[in-house]
Amino acid sequence: MRLSVQLYTVREHLASDWRGTLEKVKNLGIPYVEIAGMYDRSAEEWRKTLDELGLKASGSHIGLDQYDNDLDGVVATAQTIGFNQVIVPWIGEDQYGAGWDKFAEKMNAIGAKVKAKGLKLAYHNHAFEFKNDGLDLFYRTANPDLVAAELDLAWVAIGGGDPVAWIKKLGSRVSALHLKDYDPQAKPQWVPAGTGKVDLKGCVEAGKAAGVEFGIIELDESPGDSLQAVAQSAAYLQSLGLK
Question: Exposure of 120 by Cβ count < 10 A (0-12 exposed, 13-18 middle, 19+ buried)?
Answer without folding.
Answer: buried
